[in-house]
Amino acid sequence: MRLSADPRHAAPHAAPHAATAVRGRGDRRPAAPPRKRRARLALAALLPLLALAMALPPTAGMAQQREADMVLRIAAVVNDDIISVYDVEARTDLLVASSGMPDTADMRGRIRDQVLRALIDETLKLQEAERLGQSVSDENMAEAIRQVEQQNGIPPGGFEAFIETSGVDRGTAMRQIRAEVAWVKAVQALFRERITISDEQVDIVMDRLKAAQGKPEHLVREIYLPVDNPADEARVRENAARLVSQIRDGAGFAPLARQFSQSPSAANGGSLGWVRQGELDTTLEQALLDMRPGTVSDPIRTVGGFHILALADRRRTAVPDPDNARLTLSQLAMPARGPNALSAGTREEIKTVVRETVETCDDLNALAEEMEVPNSGPVGTVPVARLDGPMRDILTGLGENEASDPIRTPGGELIVMVCSREVPGGMPTAEAVRQRLFEERLDTLANRHLRTLRQQALIDVRI
Questions:
Q1: What CATH class has 214-319?
Q2: Which fold has domain 1-205+427-463?
Q3: Span of the secretion signal (predicted)?
């Protein structure tokens, strides 16, 4: 971010409190403005604050002068962007307010390195998003704030009130949210089209999940701290141990995950939801089996780094119960009587079209719309328990996106298709498994890219 005054005192023309893409070692980014010119811009942004501090009476100006001093002191330089001591203190205020950690000098000293590391990564993410032309819209921010409210137990629309009552700097809270959104968009732009999940990969996971039915599943949150360089091993382990200590002393897991975790689950406060056996690294699965609900693990070393797990609950994966399944259906009616009656020849033509061209419910719905026949198209979701007779047997025997043979009805004929099937206690769909594998692959590429950005960047830590 550019060096800027506290947003509560900055002049209207001061530089925005946001990171700007610059050129680092080995990068092909557009060249940054000359350093002398940037220094003049940064000094210009500080002049209103200095003038204000000089104009205030000694007592009234003491707090403002302390803030000015913190803004002037540089905590780190990331490429050509500056992180001030004020930025570090403001982010620490936010973390303390949201996590429930004690606001003591000792606690602040213990988490300062973690906060600064998070700010450095955040700056790199903002720089990369700007380099790729990924802007964050007001709608993006509004949706992200709604998620923050849900994850932190803040009433809907209560984010601004939380900021005001907690006394934290609004700018630092908004910057963190903006960086998360910008990074997601940057990673999607870079890697989405490069990831392909094969049917074979999906089948392997599905087979593993089938083998785990009836075994324990866990309600889990995680914090993931990568080890990018073997030389960082001890430092990352120490940071992980410090986080575990803070959580066991009463700090909130979700705010710490959102602040420090390098996993996609960080945006959801570290929540992984219910995890079945076979979905996690075997080292993590064994750790979960050894834990009691309501406890937090010690740091767990895996190939990529250290994990901290919080086990909220445990249950047995239920055996699928097809009788209580819910089916999402579409249908195509072919009336033989009434004002919309179709001739026998037309009905046969439609059956041929369905057999030869209809592969999904979308195809069937499009054909129904084209025919403009009443009672055709999406039906909605129907519990199997409410079906009886031949229709129940037909629908329970169909696979997803499989059309039935024509069914005779009092008014003509009917073709039905099962669009999706939700079976309590059952397996996730192949599409859900494919999406999870995609997200895991995207996560791996994102962490690798952030590591590359760190290696190429010019980072000068001064505190």
A1: alpha beta
A2: Triger factor/SurA peptide-binding fold (1.10.4030)
A3: none
